[in-house]
Amino acid sequence: MKYCIQLSIKILLLLFILFPFIHQDTEAQRLGLGIKAGMNVNSHLENFRFVAGDIDLNFNPEFTTGFNAGVIWRQGLSNRFRFQAEPTITMLGASYNDTFVLRGFDFDTESKTELLYLQLPLLLQLTTVPPEQTVFGRQRSETTFHLSGGIFGGYLINARFSGTNRGAPIGIEFEGEFSEDVRDQYKEFDGGVMIGGGLEYGYNTKIGIEMRIKYSVLDSGDTVDFTFKPKNIAASIAVYYIL
Predict the structure, then answer these.
(1) N or C: which end of the chain has fewer CB within 10 A?
(2) Strand partners, 165
(3) Cα dist. 121→71, 74, 232 in Å?
(4) Residue among 38, 12, 242 nearest 127 (CA)
(5) Is the separation of the CB atoms in 98 and 85 below 8 Å?
(6) 101-105, 169-173, 224-228, range with greatest mean pLDDT
(7) Is the whole-model pTM more than 0.90?
(8) Which residues contact 138 (CB under 8 A, 6 or more apart)?
(9) pLDDT tens readout for residues 119-168
(10) 26-242, CATH topology level
(11) What are the angstrom distances between the C-alpha of 199 and each of 25, 31, 32, 147?
């Protein structure tokens, strides 16, 4: 059984590599390459924990902003369906406006986590197909609309917890900035599902915009000393250009 699974995976990988070189006899099945860039609004679904020495923080996550940028590999499957792979650099995380107690004194924090991932979304898209129209013998550019759905995997490149703490531990106002590397609190790999939709304009060369929602089905926390089970959630918007 194990051998069959391994063989199936190898066959799928081979088909994935060879697919761009076959079935390209129609415009609907053409290969497209492009770039994209945009922004995210993201957070965690579970509280953020940070433990170091006598510091034990448990913060309620709020939304913060990040970015995404990458390349697009598109393969047409038919007039209405296409496949896309999108190697992407994206910044996820959450912000925290909370209070905590340290050595018997109350403090306020304005802080955030910044998680830099290399992600690979694999998407199937359903697109509208406008009637063909030619102007002076050339195909006219059209606006099309599409829906996207698929999965993604991610590798954690960097993770930081930073911000500003304020308080008055001895009756004197105190404010201090901090920045901590928290990669050891997160798993190296992340993965989940995404859905979205958008529109694009053009014929051979196209420019478009798309909005998506992504959800990590894997628990991204990685600690043995305390409970920490965050899951990334994000809404993103990006513009792209396809050749």
Answers:
(1) N
(2) 109, 176
(3) 11, 12, 15
(4) 242
(5) no
(6) 101-105
(7) no
(8) none
(9) 999 999 999 987 766 655 566 778 999 999 999 999 999 999 999 988 87
(10) Porin (2.40.160)
(11) 25, 18, 16, 9
